[in-house]
Amino acid sequence: MAIMPSSLEMRVRPGAPLPLGAHQSIEGINFSIFSRHATGMTLLFFATPHLAEASYTIEMDPVRNKTGDIWHVALMGMPSCVLYAWQVSGPYAPEQGHRFNPHTIVLDPYARALAGTDCWDYHACCKHTRPQSLKGASTDSRFKAKGLVVADTFDWQDDSPPRHSWSNTIIYETHVRGLTIHPSSQAQHPGTFLGVVETIPYLQELGITTLELLPIQEFYENELVRVNPVSGETLKNYWGYSTIAFFAPKESYATRGDYGVAVTEFKTMVKALHRAGIEVILDIVFNHTSEGNQLGPTLNFRGLDNRIYYMLEDDNVHYKNYSGTGNTLNCNHPVVRDYILDCLRHWVINMHVDGFRFDLASILGRDEQGNLLKNPPLLERIAEDPVLRDVKLIAEAWDAGGAYQVGHFHGVRWSEWNGHFRDDVRRFWRGDPGMNGALASRFCGSSDIYQTHNKSPVHSINFVTCHDGFTMADLVSYERKHNLANGENNTDGGNDNYSSNCGIEGATDDPIIERRRLKRIKNMMATLLLARGVPMMLGGDEMRRSQQGNNNAYCQDNPVSWYDWSFLKQNHVLFEFVRKLITLRKRFPVLSEQHFYSASTIQWFGQNHQELPDWEGREGVLGCVIDADPSNQVRLSVLFNASERAIHFRLPPPLHGNAWRLLISSSDTNSMDPKSFEQNTGEGHANTYVLDENSLSVLVDPGKLSDFEPFDNRDEEGLS
Predict the structure, then answer these.
(1) Which of 280, 281, 212, 286 has the alpha carbon at shortest distance from 246?
(2) Contact 473/545 with Cβ under 8 angstroms?
(3) 659 and 636 in contact (C-beta within 8 Å)?
(4) Could you tell me what percentage of the chain is helix, strand and coil, using 3-state DSSP and rounding each to the nearest 5?
(5) Best CA proximity match to 128, nearest among 284, 298, 281, 380
(6) What is the spatial distance between Cα 277 and Cα 208, in angstroms, rounded to a whole number?
(7) When comparing pLDDT for 674 and 438, which is higher?
(8) What single string gives the DSSP state of each residue in 116-155?
(9) Going by C-beta distance under 8 Å and a sequence separation of 6 or more, which residues neighbour residue 179?
(10) What DSSP assignment string belongs to 147-205?
(11) What are 251-258's contacts with CB under 8 Å, separation 24+?
């Protein structure tokens, strides 16, 4: 139960305008909130979040409790664990961009925790958007969660961020709830921040360095009104790209409903991951909010100062929609810029996160009219902010308004999701003709995209799959999307998936099809984890997690999206293959260096090492030799065969009389000894390696290192 103020009139002070939000000190709690166009402001306190009426209110005096555009008050001697919200008076004039409503409550955008998020009813909130319909009514708060003031007493125990360099970073994208909510996880705390902690040994064994979490800032999973037309199940906002409170971790991701537990358990998760050497990156959604279009609920920003927080159309009634979700945050208004900076600093300073992935980040570079800016002030401020200088910044460098800025995103501090890598790798291994040149460019760090803009390979976040689209298992099992369960008549989700079902649509026990699918998954995983740039895996791909052909499972909070951990045992061969690839990447730093290859460090060839690849050829056949360790003359050879026939590659002679050795192959059969093969020294002969159809292999010439060991003993056992 929240602690309520009682008989505090003599202890109320004017307070201070900064910092914004609710901040506790030894003397009490200072509350401050921004609204330029409000004519009145009332602070409300509640005994429980579900009560319809406030138990205590403080009406702001515009002379005593207002500095500029900021309203503020301090309650001296007030303890923590206080539930609060605001009531705002002002003009309801949509044609002027104003949507104030004195009969509804709004949340503090700076609230660091919420309570009562289980009691929201968005449909009811939408009915209460017009004050004319509520004349004479009292404030109705039954459909709103409340802000929560919690004490910051967490013991970080000298927590220190791992600070992996970009070149050493391997990202694993996952969903907090989906990771452990399935019964097969056998987690003690399924679907929670503490459930993530239970997976740490697994993540360490796999070898990833960085966990990228889908949105964990507070959102309302029950906002959808559609049902699954197949099962009748009510659909939910599972992914969470509909933020309400940007400073607050999601209450339902805590193990229990006690006030403020989500904050403590999020910090516990971060501390445990850091101790294991794993970074935490948050997927954050500053391009829009959950208030939606003009018919949506009033939760915070709309009721505080609609025309400042949102981009509006010329009529001021409708919202510009560069996000595709109904509204667009007015990111480059100075007030909103400050809000975003304050939020990012909060997650770094108070919550110890290591970086951010910005959803639809091109919106952050648009001005108040929606035009793309040449030098966006917000992006520059984020990049140059002294508190954020060591954190990782990742942009999804496009938006729903037509902007596509991959390779052109502002500044050198920003890395980018490389959509070209995803599409070109998929198309190459699908067998599309003419993809050899594109594959080589992606493998080398996409120099064709980044080098001319003074960027490096680590500006490219390489991925083949992510939360948005097919999983790796579905990419090789479905020719088309199967999204009927989303209730949108299969019209949602992308159509250009560059997928292949390998002969049968959907699940099958045909051993020939299954072998073909497994090889293609291995091929794409190997290309991802051996390419220069920063690899990002979709969590669960290493165990063939399937979404049954759904390429837009944003509303599927059920086994379609959850990790079924029994798949790990069924697909342990794939898990071991991915683990070995990560080990291989770490063993050979040349694969992940922060600069582009030169002509002297990588040589591309066709079937014969003395011939260039057929860059525009119909068959996806090419290989390369990489100088892995010039001092010891160690070389790697990576061979690609996306064709439907075995290819006899002729490799350059190994140095110092050693034989080329096979390190790893996506094929489960090889035409030659998988460990090594002899050098043919006769005139006109060269080393020959036979690579099966639709396969990739990596070989090593140990050079001067006669005792070369690429893996530890466990890795060497059973290598095939």
Answers:
(1) 286
(2) yes
(3) no
(4) 25, 20, 50
(5) 298
(6) 9
(7) 438
(8) -GGG--HHHHHHT--GGGGTTPPP--TT--EEEE------
(9) 185, 195, 196, 199, 539, 563
(10) EEE--------S-------GGG--EEEE-HHHHH-SGGG--SSTTSHHHHHHTHHHHHH
(11) 251/113, 251/114, 251/115, 251/117, 251/118, 251/145, 251/218, 252/117, 252/118, 252/221, 253/176, 253/177, 253/191, 253/192, 253/193, 253/216, 254/192, 254/193, 255/189, 255/192, 255/194, 257/118
Q: What is the mean pLDDT of residues 354-380?
A: 97
The arithmetic mean of pLDDT across residues 16-20, rounded, is: 97
Which residue type sits at 595?
Answer: H
Q: Which residues contact 183 (CB under 8 A, 6 or more apart)?
A: 190
Average pLDDT over residues 315-339: 97
> What is the per-residue pLDDT across 594-638, written as a single tens digit (0 to 9) for each?
999 999 999 999 999 999 999 998 999 999 999 999 999 999 999
Say whether 110 sits in a helix, a strand or coil: coil
Sheet holding 695-701, edge to edge: 602-605, 621-629, 634-641, 695-701, 661-665
Contact 250, 112 (CB under 8 A): no
pLDDT tens digits along 207-238: 999 999 999 999 999 999 899 998 999 999 99
Other residues' Cβ atoms within 10 Å of the Cβ of residue 558:
18
Query: How does DSSP assign 317-345, residue by residue?
Result: SSB--TTSSS--B-TTSHHHHHHHHHHHH
Give the confidence band of 533 by pLDDT, cuts at 50, 70, 90: very high
| Rg of the chain on CA atoms, in Å | 28
- β-bridge mates for residue 358, sequence order: 284, 395
Q: Do 368 and 255 meet the contact criterion of CB atoms below 8 Å apart?
A: no
Distance (Å, whole) CA 355 – CA 249: 16
For residues 487-498, give the mean pLDDT.
97
Residue-wise pLDDT tens digits, 236-250: 999 999 999 999 999
What would the pLDDT profile of 304-317 be if each residue is shown by its tens digit?
999 999 999 999 99
The model's pTM is 0.95
User: 256-274: per-residue pLDDT in tens?
Assistant: 989 999 999 999 999 999 9
DSSP E strand stretches across 236-376: 243-249, 279-284, 355-358
pLDDT of residue 716 exceeding 70, the answer is: no
Determine contact, residues 581/541, Cβ cutoff 8 Å: no
What tokens were used for 242? 């509909």
- Residues annotated as catalytic are 359, 396
3-state secondary structure of 83: strand
User: What six digits make up the tokens of 169?
Assistant: 């970073």
8 A C-beta contact, residue 113 and residue 263: yes
CA 634, chain centre distance (Å): 36
Task: Name the nearest CA neighbour of 645 among 607, 604, 683.
Answer: 607
Distance CA 237, CA 234 (A): 10
Name the pLDDT band for 27 (thresholds 50, 70, 90): confident
Q: What is the pLDDT of residue 129?
A: 59
Please give the Cα distance from 285 to 28 (Å, whole number): 32
Tokens of 421: 């890598």
List own/partner pairs for 436-441 with CB under 8 A and 24 or more apart: 436/613, 436/614, 436/615, 436/616, 436/617, 436/620, 436/621, 436/622, 437/615, 437/616, 439/527, 439/620, 439/622, 439/640, 440/604, 440/613, 440/615, 440/622, 440/624
Across-strand partners of 281? Answer: 212, 355
Confidence check: pLDDT of 127 > 70: no
Look at residue 130 in the predicted model and tell me its pLDDT: 64
Residues in the chain: 720
Comparing CA positions, the residue from 542, 545, 627 lying closest to residue 593 is 627
- Asked whether the CA dihedral 172, 176, 177, 182 is positive or negative, the reply is positive
Contacts of 548 (CB under 8 A, 6+ apart): 474, 482, 506, 560
Rounded Cα distance, 483 and 493, in Å: 8
